Amino acid sequence: MRPWSRAHGVEWGQVDQITVGSTLALNAVSEGRGAPTALVTTRGFGDVLDIARERRSALYDLQQVVAAPLIPRQLRYEVDERVAADGEIVSPLDLDRAAGPLLAWLDASGVESVAISLVNSYAWSGTRSSSET
Questions:
Q1: Burial category of 77 from C-beta neighbours within 10 Å (exposed 0-12, middle 13-18, buried 19 and up)
Q2: Using an 8 Å Cβ cutoff, are 127 and 88 in contact?
Q3: How many Å apart are CA 69 and CA 111, to the nearest integer?
Q4: Where are the alpha helices (DSSP H) in the chain?
Q5: What global pTM score does this model have?
Q6: Distance (Å, rounded) from C-alpha 116 to C-alpha 133?
Q7: Buried-state track 27-53, b at ≥16 Cβ within 10 A, e below 16
Q8: CA–CA gap between residue 83 and residue 88 (Å, rounded)
Q9: Residue 117: exposed, middle, or buried by beta-carbon count in 10 A (0-12, 13-18, 19+)?
């Protein structure tokens, strides 16, 4: 986000929270009418949308036809970071190292929006320093 803030003339310290969501946006995404969207997630969790444990009506039916994930695999990007369930930073996100490749990938992918979903992010949201969030 720092490169974005620099490019848009916003001081990173001025950003307190980024939250986006609405019924209109959720409906557009779930109906496939939304903008092409990328998902940025913790390394090792890019396939969670494909696994879809809770989305199948017959959990153990391997032949069941399921809906395509909201974000296709080729539009998912994994970053090296990890937060434990109690909020402890196990492996911090090195934003300086991750930002360049991520931004290049986003530019090449042609997406118009980005969803960020990091494992256990709820555990540290609002409780850590701005460099960690």
A1: buried
A2: no
A3: 16
A4: 2-7, 23-30, 48-51, 95-109, 121-124
A5: 0.68
A6: 12
A7: eebeeeebeebbbbbbeebbebbeeee
A8: 6
A9: middle
The tokens for 65 are: 């036809």
Between the two ends of the chain, the Cα-to-Cα distance in Å is 10
SS3 73: helix
Nearest alpha-carbon partner for 114 in 64, 79, 67, 66: 79
At residue 46's C-alpha, the angle toward residues 70 and 59, to 5°, is 65
* Single-letter amino acid code for the residue at 32: G
Please give the DSSP secondary-structure letter assigned to residue 96: H
pLDDT in tens, the chain (133 residues): 566 667 767 776 766 656 556 676 667 767 777 788 899 999 999 998 887 666 667 778 878 777 788 889 999 999 999 989 888 889 999 988 998 999 999 999 999 888 898 998 888 655 554 333 4
Residue type, 43: R
Q: In the numeric block, which tokens belong to residue 39?
A: 């998902």
